[in-house]
Specification:
The protein is an alpha/beta fold and 443 residues long. It contains 12 helices and 15 strands.
């Protein structure tokens, strides 16, 4: 077994229309999808799931079967949380329009959101998606620095706009990286020699030097602070600080992509960057912000946006509209009132301990990396933590689906189980997942 990436452009755990035990109804849906939506869309699992309803940590198919959701960080406070749904509906019934009118809802939310950040981060601009947030952040970074060069990790995912897709190598070889983009290895402690912080910073230095040799001025280091698509790398805490110093010395800025780890998922506060002892120049937010409603944003140091704001007006028809603000505000209410950051810490620790125990008994479960309710578990060739096994990982993912547990795989080798359930996940939910995983791991 060799430790190699998947073929470029492949999506882990993608449905193959030539396979799958589909009912006649679902086969018809697949054919209708292909006819109406075209060839670029993908479905999960060998046999896709036909979902019709969600409730908390559970999703239900058309036959009423329940699936434990251990994958979707979009519904961060649980599917169809009644307080979030009520806030959304109530505001939609009163007023829903853009930000070119005065309305106190967006201001109440903006002020409340900014209070979760270090005081240096004093402005927020709203978008609909994390892709838009990262796109806007890069436009602002380029105006602020006068540079165009961006550094990302080798299997990063930051979004699907034209600009940001060119900075998302995980999309595969069919999406060309921008000529101003430089990729660096993820901070993988198993595969880097020496200190993780210094090794990662040295890669940033090398990328900067290459840009400068090509006449490219650095603009930003853009990283997902949990390195989700690279395989989930949270530790050691603080390792990002040296790399941030390097990009700033070169005249660029640091953008923390919190679309995946943000809003309490790591169990150590609201934001993944806080564990590293750094204050970013910009922070991008997305998916969990509205629990499924399309709201996202960019939080920034005021001086970073001065040049952009003086030369370009910003407008987004739906970004930050009154319904978005009310919905996002309700998400904060739930996180606070239900103690979901503490829950992410305690249940995450319980889940990590269970995975460690399982790994001690099953040699195909390799290194476990985790913080709070964001966990990555490598599937490896028996007895060799460096020998990835994406074939067995695919089997495990699909066996779990058959056992009523939804999960997926990530990483450049597609062998890392990506575990990120709603923040309302309980110890009982974790125990159920561990029990089903133990069975699914058996070869």
């Amino acid at each position: 077994m060799t430790d190699r990436p998947m073929l470029s452009g492949q999506m882990p755990n993608a449905f193959d229309p030539a396979r799958g035990n589909l009912s006649a109804e679902d086969r018809d849906l697949v054919e209708r999808r292909a006819a109406a939506l075209g060839p670029a869309y993908r479905l999960f699992y060998e046999t896709p799931v036909h979902l019709v309803r969600g409730d908390g940590v559970w999703l239900y198919d058309a036959d009423g079967r329940a699936y434990l959701d251990t994958y979707n960080n979009v519904a961060s406070v649980g599917h169809c949380h009644p307080r979030v749904v009520a806030a959304m509906a109530e505001q939609a019934a009163v007023f829903a329009s853009h930000t070119r009118y005065l309305h106190d809802g967006i201001l109440r939310y903006a002020e409340r959101l900014l209070a979760y950040f270090p005081p240096a981060l004093g402005h927020v601009m709203f978008t609909c998606t994390g892709s838009e947030a990262n796109d806007l952040a890069l436009r602002i970074a380029q105006a602020h620095t006068g540079g165009t060069g961006v550094i990302v990790t080798e299997n990063a995912y930051h979004g699907v706009t034209h600009l940001i897709a060119g900075m998302s190598p995980s999309l595969g070889s069919g999406v060309t990286l921008g000529s101003q983009v430089r990729t660096i290895p993820a901070p993988d402690p198993l595969r880097c020699s020496g200190d993780v912080a210094e090794t990662f910073a040295s890669h940033v230095r090398t990328a900067i030097a290459d840009m400068q040799a090509q006449g490219i001025r650095p603009a930003a280091l853009l990283v997902d602070t949990i390195f989700s698509s690279d395989g989930v790398f949270a530790d050691p805490a603080g390792f990002l600080a040296l790399a941030v110093d390097e990009i700033r010395k070169a005249g660029g800025i640091f953008i923390a992509d919190e679309v995946q780890p943000g809003f309490g998922r790591t169990g150590t506060g609201m934001w993944g960057f806080a564990r590293h002892g750094v204050v970013p120049d910009m922070v991008t937010l997305g998916k969990p912000m509205g629990n499924g409603y399309p709201v996202a944003g960019v939080v920034m140091r005021p001086q970073v946006v001065e040049k952009f704001g003086a030369s370009a007006r910003y407008f987004n028809t739906f970004g930050g509209n009154a319904v978005a603000a009310a919905t996002a505000n309700a998400v904060l209410d739930v996180i606070e009132d239900e103690g979901l950051i503490d829950n992410a810490a305690t249940v995450g620790d319980h889940l990590r301990a269970g995975l460690d125990d399982l790994a001690s008994r099953d040699p195909s479960l390799g290194p476990i990396r985790a913080k709070g309710l964001f966990l990555g578990a490598e599937i490896v060739a028996v007895g060799d933590p460096l020998a990835s096994d994406h074939v067995h990982a695919g089997r495990v993912v699909n066996r779990l689906r058959e056992a009523g547990v939804l999960i997926s795989a990530t990483g450049p080798r597609a062998n890392v189980l990506k575990i990120r359930p709603p923040l309302t996940f309980s110890r009982d939910n974790a125990d159920l997942f561990l029990d089903r995983l133990a069975t699914a791991l058996k070869r």
